[in-house]
Amino acid sequence: MGSLQFDFGGETVVVTGASSGIGRAAALAFGEAGATVVNADVDPDPHGVDENVPTHELIEQAGGTAAYVETDVSEHAQLRDLVAEAREYGGVDVMVNNAGLTLGDSLREADPTDLDRMYGVNVRGTFFGTQAAANDMIERGVEGCIVNTASISSNVAQFGQAGYDTTKGAIRMITRGSALELAEYGIRVNAVAPGQIATEFTEGWTEEANRKAEEDDFLKPLPMGRAGVPEDVAPAMLYLASEGAGYTTGELLAVDGGWQVL
């Protein structure tokens, strides 16, 4: 199998929710590929059990350029401020709307306050993150890229996650609608749809998920026989932001170990 290399030298990449999980893996990968990376998160500290160095510091330790901007993506004004701060590094070339929240309540048990919070982060954060980045790119005359973090829940309902599923379904349509509107400016908008990914987002699920995968104990089996990890998703994000995907927009790219095949 061939090796995979990307070059984002001279580009500024903003990743929301980059302190941990998929966002952290993506930010580190963009940094390794030469990009200046701006981590937008509510907290710079990672949540992984074995992780203690903030993402932007890891990138800098490796010789890259990175920054942390405290950002609550559910706040429209903070997203605009984030993009404005990215101007200090030349402006946004790639926007990764990754920040997400799951509360996992069933339809009958869902709490309105919790649902509003989840919609604020997942839906408003993605919608207005896309808006802020697109307006910046258009103003600067840049044909940039936007990559959103969707989910297998964007297409398929999962038991007990009616609220979460609707937020990820919305992200799918934000991606498609934005791609349609922004194509005339040369701005591409795509999304990745991770499957069963073991991160702190799923409460330290790595060992348990792998055990379940090996024992075929999921509600739906994984053809590839293991849970995914954030490093499985990051390359898909870099691909969608690269020239290799130059004729791809409005796409939802599944990274799910074959979950949707069955």
Number-wise, the strands total: 7
- Secondary-structure element sequence? EHEHEHEHEHEHHE
The mean pLDDT is: 90
Distance between the termini: 25 Å
Q: Tell me the overall shape.
A: globular
Computed Rg: 17 Å
Percent of residues in helices comes to: 25-40%
Largest sheet, spatial ordering of strands: 3-2-1-4-5-6-7
Which regions contain 5 or more consecutive residues with pLDDT less than 50? none
Strand content: 5-15%
Structure commentary:
With 262 residues, the protein is an alpha/beta fold. 39% of the residues lie in helices and 14% in strands. The chain is built from seven helices and seven strands, in the order βαβαβαβαβαβααβ. A seven-stranded parallel sheet has the order 3-2-1-4-5-6-7, with helices on both faces. The two termini are 25 Å apart.
